[in-house]
Request: fold
Amino acid sequence: MPTILAIESSCDDTSAAVLRNDRLLSNTIASQEVHRQYGGVVPELASRAHQQNIIPVVDGAIRNAGVMKNEIDAVAFTRGPGLLGSLLVGVSFAKSFAQAMGIPLIEVNHLQAHVLSHFIKENDDSEVPQFPFICLLVSGGHTQIILLRDYFDMEILGNTIDDAAGEAIDKAAKIMDLGYPGGPVIDRLAKDGDPLKFTFAQPNIPDFNYSFSGIKTSFLYFLRDQLASNPNFIAENQADLCASIQHAIVSFLLKKLTKAMHKTGIRQVAVAGGVSANSYLRDQLTALGQKHLWKVFLPKKQFCTDNAAMVGIAGYFKYLNNDFADISLPPYTR
Reply:
């Protein structure tokens, strides 16, 4: 029954978790509010905040788990992808802790961790996907359709060729001056809007790949033209605009996902990543599953955004395979 300390510091959230086997004992997160005034994550400020947060966050995770440091059998850490300065803080701390305690290191890919978050157990009733299944990974930096045959046997069926879905949502929010992060704001305002009020360009991309630059451009030019004749257009149509751009992005996501499901014949589908917290995406995917008789897995909201619990579950499966990391391994950004 390995007890694993997990550390996540790929962007602007400092997080630590403790797992015993696949059971989550604690998951502590320190978010950084400093980036709101800049409308996005400032890498240098993020790395400095990680340095301030890492020790209290790890200490809190261990205390909340009710374990002692000498009970920890391994340290799992996010090696990449992410912001280099942020990653360096988490990687360096993980190496130091492992060296001090004489325990092994486990490197974890941030994207694989998001996908494997579906296997985190908080109680014995937790239902997990059965292999093979398809996962739609949607975040601010990545958008992929992934076929999973085993925990680390993953095949990317489709990828974005330019921007990610989350980045497109945040950019739309920025254009409308809704603040940062824009995704939750659009999700909230869209609940009072008509998703079919306005239409935006849908890219014609082959296979299972995505492109969101065209949707962003279509949204930008549409607002430019409307504002030219009515300077109050955004304020007067805010809810409908949020609902419509959200619908354009989500419908495109699910169009390609449906194509992949039919092509593979797989009947189980999951969604992961920060955008998987979006209520419209969750509702639409659930409805699609009911229509096509798919088994749909939605992650708990606390496991959608960056967190160490997902790093810990990936680390647990690697621990079972004796897949340990050398202390010389550096972080990677891509």
Notes: The first helix runs from residue 43 to 65. The beta strands are 3-8, 14-20, 23-30, 74-80, 105-109, 133-138, 143-148, 154-159, 268-272, 295-297. The first strand starts at residue 3 and ends at 8. The CA atoms of residues 5 and 35 lie 28 Å apart.
